[in-house]
Amino acid sequence: MARVFVITGPSGVGKGTLIKHLLERVPELELSVSATTRGPRPGEEHGVHYHFLDPAEFDRRVANGAFVEHAEYSGRHYGTLREELDRRTAAGHPVVLEIEVQGARQVRTAMPEAVQIFIVPPSTDTLRQRLVGRGTDDEQQVASRLEVAVSELAAQDEFAYKVVNAELDAAVDELVDIVRREMVLA
Question: What global pTM score does this model have?
């Protein structure tokens, strides 16, 4: 089985940007496509960025054990479909999961061999600026995400690795080093 890398951290910390650069620099990695009940953002495509499911379908799949992990985050559901992960790892492809802290904990229980990496913002003020700057959430949603982020940041010591995303190139270099080192150990 190939290695599974869990990259987590609060919303707005830059997980997606870091993973984009990681995939460019470590092309043998594949990104697992998560399922969600939230609607697509501009430019997002079903099956490429997320599997967009309505809440009833998501709940049906949870009941059928179709997820390796699933979580509710800011009123929306997210999860990693077991078939998506199994297909890739069985074919020998190392996989990156971009998931929230609740889901990362579930993966840790289900797959203790998965490499867990927590992305940390340089400050909560920076995190707030990034969330507002995305322009995808209203002020109430930003406040909700920041409230969740505070509790998630308190959990960072649970994770094997922490990468502070203060300066993009340095954070990408650190992430690439961790992934390459762990791929050799697999």
Answer: 0.84
